[in-house]
Amino acid sequence: MSIVSNPLPSIVLVGRPNVGKSTLFNRLTRSRRAIVTAVAGTTRDVIAREVEWEGRRFNLVDTGGMFGASEDPLHALVLERGQRALATADMVLFVVDGREGLVPGDEEIAAAIRARDLPVTLVINKTDDKRAKAGILEFYQLGFEPVFEISAEHGEGIGDLMDSLAGSAGRPLAEGEHPLEDGEQPRPGHAAVTEPGEVSVAIVGRPNAGKSSLVNRLLREERMIVSDVPGTTRDAVDTMMTWHRRQFRIVDTAGIRRPGRVARSGQVESLSVLLARRAIEDADVVVLVIDSAAGATDQDATIAGEADKAGRGVIVVANKWDLMKGREENFSVAFDDSLRQQLKFLDYAPVLHISAATGERATKLLEAIDTVAKARLTRVSTGALNRFIATVTARHPPASPGHRHVRVMYAAQTGVAPPTFVLFTNVATTFHFSYERFLVNQLREEFGFAGTPIRVMVRKRTRPAKN
Predict the structure, then answer these.
(1) Is residue 202 within 8 Å of residue 280, measured between CB atoms?
(2) How far apart are CA 420 and CA 454, in angstroms?
(3) H/E element holding 265?
(4) What is the pLDDT of residue 344?
(5) Span 38-84, pLDDT tens digits
(6) CB atoms within 10 A of CB 104
(7) Contact 417/312 with Cβ under 8 angstroms?
(8) What domains are there in the chain, each with its CATH number?
(9) How far apart are CA 333 and CA 329, in angstroms?
(10) How does DSSP classify residue 405?
(11) DSSP 228
(12) What does the alpha-carbon distance between residue 182 and residue 275 come to, in Å, rounded to a whole number?
């Protein structure tokens, strides 16, 4: 296994807390990937996003509040991650607050940047505020060039800044690459394809289930900040990796708690949960991480339900399995039975017992992700599908709510991701949920579809009018 080394140049955002780095990151990447609040030090993990401008690309990296005083108990870890990002930077984007003017904290950051001997672009933010006019000239004494006066919130001056960044550090599009559409990231969507390309994997679950530890284990590096403090991860942070020539985009998300607890915990966590839910919507495969010692809860079922409703592939990971050693014989069987009972609608999802701490069976998760990603894109030939449906319905014929005789005249697979089937019948009807579940189970047993939901729809077959 190896980590993808992105050949794109890296531009790293630095600056004091609350100067607008995350707002600028979202503006330049045309996304809402970084959480923006008035709370200083909101961003903890390093967030990277690919940017394309006028045919040139680069990686933009938001380092979080690595500079300035902080009461965050995880500030030392935040600082370490930021320093690591700076060590691999090709350029620094130094953001200052024009409204506040030059302060000692800016001068300290400037000194730290000069010590690294990197090209620096100085960005004076919030210059749309009348209070900024008097203090803007103070920043020029820092000696960095070029200097741009912008408003990240309102988009003023962004075009000129992007022209400069792309011209100085951007890599021209390679032959065969296409420009990104507005807000698009370079990953395939959920259209019908025959082979999975890049697979987006959302790691979700309740706080402290071990999601970030699992991501670090898969990547074989301390990429994510790990702590016993609940709610350590705030942003949805994604990292590219390859495994057996397959590309995975691993997205670590904030722990999702019950809505009442989220509301009481404040704005930052509410936005974190929103990003986690958005990561589920954007994913190909969702990995639900459960603390083995705690078992599955109603909240785990709610999270899994969102993934199932969104039509994403699902894998259930019972983490911290090393703590379960020494239990009675057949404990794993009883554990899985209880888990299946709690997550009844996820009977199709594989369950893995792993330990992110020790690495036990971690590679099995990568194998499962690959299998589920392929299953979501499986397409059954029309001939094989109709022969199979004819055999199944002959053995167990469906019935309509009015007890009329129902015959399936024709079946077709109309989509993938998730696999979707339409059954055309002789009368307008619906199937009882138990019969629909029976058909889904039969399809899964015959054709695979491991780890992916299956959609079945029923339509009355209409015959063309005769001339």
Answers:
(1) yes
(2) 6
(3) helix 259-265
(4) 85
(5) 333 434 456 778 888 888 888 888 876 555 544 444 444 445 555 66
(6) 8
(7) no
(8) 10-172 (3.40.50.300), 199-376 (3.40.50.300), 382-460 (3.30.300.20)
(9) 9
(10) B
(11) S
(12) 19
